[in-house]
Amino acid sequence: MNVIERIQEQLGSQPVVLYMKGTPDFPQCGFSGQVVQILQACKAQYRAVNIFEDPELREALKEYSHWPTYPQLYVNGELVGGCDIVIDLFNKGELQNMLTAN
């Protein structure tokens, strides 16, 4: 399985997928930690992928998503965005709707 197939498998494995630096229990950057806190506040079920465990995936995902930074939050296989966008959607109440529509 090539790296793009792995990304597609991960995105298909669960409706909400977070590509992050570290893990939900031990985020390794503040932005990843903030998105984890927001997802927890929304009581979202999600799959977290630690990009530090797979350098090939970390680089390929930037091209796949056309988004250069992490974290990256996906809902139903579609990129929602990074930390700033997730915070904005959460503050507007839109993220909760996106997450409960699954």
Automatic annotation (TrEMBL):
Keyword line: 2Fe-2S, Iron, Iron-sulfur, Metal-binding, Redox-active center
Residues that, per the record, bind [2Fe-2S] cluster: 29
Glutaredoxin domain residues: 16-80
UniProt keyword Endoplasmic reticulum present: no
GO MF entries: 2 iron, 2 sulfur cluster binding; disulfide oxidoreductase activity; metal ion binding
Stored Pfam families: Glutaredoxin
InterPro entries per UniProt: Glutaredoxin, GRX_PICOT-like, Monothiol_GRX, Monothiol_GRX-rel, Thioredoxin-like_sf
Family: Belongs to the glutaredoxin family. Monothiol subfamily.
Protein name: Glutaredoxin
Lineage, uppermost ranks: Bacteria, Pseudomonadati, Pseudomonadota, Gammaproteobacteria, Methylococcales
